[in-house]
Structures are given as structure tokens and as C-alpha cells.
Amino acid sequence: MEKNFLSRIKEKVLIFDGAMGTSIHKYDLSLDDYHGYENCPEILVESRPDVIQEIHESYLKAGCDAVETDTFGGSPVVLAEFDLAARAYELNKKAAQLAREVASSYSTADKPRFVSGSIGPTTKLPSLGHISFADMKDAYYAQVSGLIDGGVDVLQFETGQDLMQAKAAIIAILDYFKKIGRRLPIIAQVTIEAPPLGTMLVGSDISCALTTLSAFPIDVIGINCATGPAEMLDPVHYLTHNTDRFVSVLPNAGLPENVDGQTVYKLTPDALASALKHFALDEGVNIIGGCCGTTPDHLKRVVEVVGEMEPRRRDPQITPAVSSIYTSVALNIDNPPLIVGERTNTNGSRKFKQLLQKEDFDGMVAMARDQEREGAHVLDVCTAYVGRNEVSDMVKLIKRLNTEIQIPLVVDTTEYPVLKSALECISGKPIVNSINLEDGEESMMRKVELITRFGAATVALTIDEEGMARSADRKLEIARRIYKLTTEAGLAPHDLIFDALTFTLSTGNEEDRKLGLETLKAIKSIKEELPGVKTILGVSNISFGFDPAIRQTLNSVFMHYAVEYGLDLAIVNAQKILPLFKIEEEEREYHRRLIFDERDESYDPLFALLDYYKRKSTSGDTMSKRAVAANIEDVLKDRIIDGNRV
Ligand code: THG
Are 430 and 394 in contact (CB under 8 A)? Predict the structure, then answer.
């Protein structure tokens, strides 16, 4: 039985080859050798296949387990610079066939040799607007289909400088898998610039890369290029301790140095080999190899030193998280809840709505920044506005927020086209707000497909064909149904954030009295019954219709209990949440009794609470400045009947 790539990587540390470019340069090729396409390495598979074949052979002779195809710049995006875009499929296929032929001739039952389809980052950074996501993905599709049709064993996106490049490549790969009805392993590698930068070119740190890429069905995550192994110690350590995927490390032969206008790499074969041995032996790295400046001599030494080493078992800690373009934000934090900034929402802030009406994008970005400064961990963004184009408003705003704020985004929309366009503009791993079963399973699952395709997490509301669930039992029942449907479709449980929905307690209606308590109970049972999922609430909904001072306290007290019952994320105005110790005990108690509906024949917590504030406002103590005229008639007159704003 022939060993495939995924069975072999479990047996031994796989050794990939070294640089293609460095090897090509040694041949001193003429313009004719390039068929006139000056310095286009990808044309050589057609113009000088003997050269590429010889290079592959040199690494196989050195003992490497895998060779990379000569297709690093094989995306039509890069080939266009040589007027070769239209030939992308053909050149990638040829390159794969060439490598396949050589690798097969060296393959034995004991030591299979693999062909890895190299997919470079191109010359464009989609996150900075150089190219659209869709164009980049379509270009990668042409490259990927050629590589797969040419017979590669594994696909290797590498030297990623921008996570949006990686997403475009991975989505293109998955699209082609779907078309042919089979899949191959996927490697996704990013490039971390040398310290002091220590991030990808567009600013993403290693945690961000891991969180963002882990949301996709990739098999290997790794780093390559930019530096030698010494500068990779920290990011490699981060990966090996935080992921259960296989890890790859392909450094340059040291940091590039400039000698007489030439880039040279000075790390010796011995030094590279001992560094890579450390990665394999001590860190549990699964794939090692070389990038710029590494030669067959380097890899020969690596093979000698590392040999047939079994991979070291790792015991990584997996942290559910989301990410912005810059960094990763864990969904489990020491002091929950994770704060979701609520004000960049046309339904939640008059000021934001007016800024959108004026198309004042600077003003909207400033509101986002304010919330970030006030302590929001992630940012809810909603641009729904009757009479305006939600798609173009959302895209314009998200494109700015994607690079201008540090925290991850929550895309708050009910519209599929808005969601799709927003997801195409986000570099990190966002949260989608939200899905539900109001229009049935098919409509929800269309969105779920989009969410898993783009590697996002999602909020799921406890709403079904019958409407919003009000009792804890119904909320749990709907959550269960959504859990089953979405996890079966490939969504990870920790990327599923249930919103058990809360409604206002201000109405005084008999049927509304227990709505806060039912929500708390639902949060508890959802967390207990559905392993791994998270919970969220639009906390302010609990207090619609109350006076502002009451709202602030009720929101704060309710949030406190919600966290006790298992709430992980809260959509709130971070600035206006009071820690419990800042609320007088007496006042706190009125709110607690309202939330838990502690009525008896002689006591009504709603009336008692309103009466309390009325007394305060007339007694002139310091509280009265916040708790202004809370008059029962006013509250009941202004009450919001359908207090929920979802
Ligand atoms: N669940 C989920 N998403 C949601 C909600 C939810 N998104 C929208 C909403 N509900 C949460 N967001 C807000 C935003 C603002 C307010 C309440 C909820 C709010 N605003 C003040 C008001 O209306 O009085 C301030 C208004 C202003 O500044 O003009 O209370 O439940 N998943």
C-alpha cells in the first residue's frame, strides 16, 4: 500500500527541499533560456525543463522527502507581469508533471517522495487594496487547478505576507476540491519579518495568523522565508504550543545580507541542520526544509543530522479566538464577558446613524476608535439604513476598519449580500452577527456555508419559524437544533456563539416579568448541554424604556448575573457598564429582585424599583444626578413593546 502524505507525516519528520531561485541562478541562464521572458522562473518548465528537473533531482539525491514545484510565481497575478497570465493553468500543470516524474523515479515503498505544489503570495497585498479578494481568489484557482491536474501530492501556500492572500488561496483550493470531488492536504505558511517588526508585512502577528488560518480545513501551518532559523524561535514556539495541526518551518540560510549590491545568505549547512534539528526534536515541528539561499548541500546536511526522526508529540493548548488583521483575541478571558462595542450600529446609536447619513466615514471610524479605547474587545458594525445601499456602506466602512482599528470585527447584518461583501474585505477572523431559523433551515444554512467558507465565527439567535423564543426551554431547544445543523456542516462548536436574547423588563406586563430570568436560565443550560459553545447577549435590551440612569444600573446588574450563569460575550457600551461594587447595595438589590421577579402579594419589584428612584431623585442625594425623574407613568407610557432590537 503506497504511503500518502498524511500517513507519512505521522511517521517521520518530513524534510522538504531548499531554494529554487538560488539554484536557478547558478545556471547563469540567458534571455533565450527564458524564451525572452526575462527572469520568469515559471517559464523554465517549458523552456529549460532539464534545468528544473536537475534541481529537483539535486534535492532528491540529498535525501529530501519532498520537492516543491517551480510555481512560486505561478498565479496569473504574477504571470501577468510577463504577459503570461492566460497560460497559468498550463504552466502550473507542466511544472507539477515535471516534479512528479522526477519524484516518482526516486520513490520507493520505504521512502516515498512527494511533490508539493508551491503557491506564492503574488506581488499584491489585497488587505491594502492592491487587488480585490475575488480577483485574487480567481487567479489562484487557475494556478491550483493546474497543480492538482498535474499530480501534486499536497498544496503549499507559502511566504504569506497578508492573511487575505492566504484566505484567497485556501478558498480557491477548496473550491477546486469541491469541483473534482476529492481533496489533498493543504499547507499554509506565513512569513514573519525579522525583529523588531516580528509580524507579517501587513502587521499580523503569529497569534493572528494562527487564529485566522485555523478556521480553515488546513493540515499544516508554518512559517518560511524572511529570516534564518534563529529569528524564528519565538513564532515557531508559539505555533508548536498552540496548534494541534502539523507545523512546518522553512527558514532562509540566515538573514539576507547585502554584499556589493548582491543579496547573500551566509548560514552554513551545519548551522541550518542543527537549528532545524532543534525545531524537530525540541519543538515537535513536523516539516523542515529551506527557503532562500539554501542549497542541496544545506539539505544534505539536514538529512544527515535529522535523518528518519519520529515527530515529537506535542501537547498544545487550543484557545478559541477571533482576530483582526493585527492580532488574535481569545474568546475565553479571565474576567468575562468579552466586551462587544455596540455603538457603531445604525440601530443602536443616533450619532452613528447621522454620521452614516452624512457619509462621514472619518467620524464613524473615530467612533470605532473611541470604543476600542474604552475597552471594547471586538466591535459590532451595522450599517442597515432604510433607503441607503447597505452593501456599499458596509464595504466602505469595513475596508477602513479592517486596517484602522486593532480589534476584531463583528459583522451585524441580516442580509446575505451584505455579509458576503463584508467577509471579502476582512483580513482576520470575524464574528458574523447573526444567523437564526426564522426563515427556515435552508436560508440559515446558506449563510452557514458562507461563514465556514470564510473561516468566521458566528452568533446564533434563538429564533425559529415560530419567532423569538421566550422560555428557557424553547431557547435551549432552538439552540440544540442550530448546534446540530451547523456543526454537521463543519462549524466548530467554539465558533458558535448563542444569543438567548433578552427583552425589556420595563413593560410590567404579566407575560414579560420572567423574561430576564428565562434568558439567564437558557444561558446556563446552553453552556451545559452544548459542549464548547459560547454565549452572547445584547445586554441593553433588558432595559429599553427605562430612564437612562436606571438603564445603566440594570444593564450592569443584569450583565453581572448573566456572567454568573455563563455569559461569555456582552454587546454593551463599555463606558457605561458599572462594576457591581460601584453600585450601592440597596440599589443593586432592587435590580436583582426585578431580574429574578421576586414578587409576592405585597411586593412588586418593578414598582418598588421605580419608587426607589423616585424617592432618590426628590431626596437630592448624589444619586439623584444620575437617577433623574423616574416616574412610573412616564416609564410605562414610553415603554418599548417589542423591546428587542435584533
Ligand atoms: N443580539 C445580537 N445583536 C444585537 C442585539 C442583540 N445587535 C443590536 C442590539 N441587539 C445590540 N446593540 C445595541 C446598541 C445600542 C443600544 C442597545 C443595543 C442602546 N442604545 C441607546 C438607546 O437606544 O437608548 C443609545 C442610543 C443613542 O446613543 O442614540 O441601548 O440583542 N446578537
Answer: no
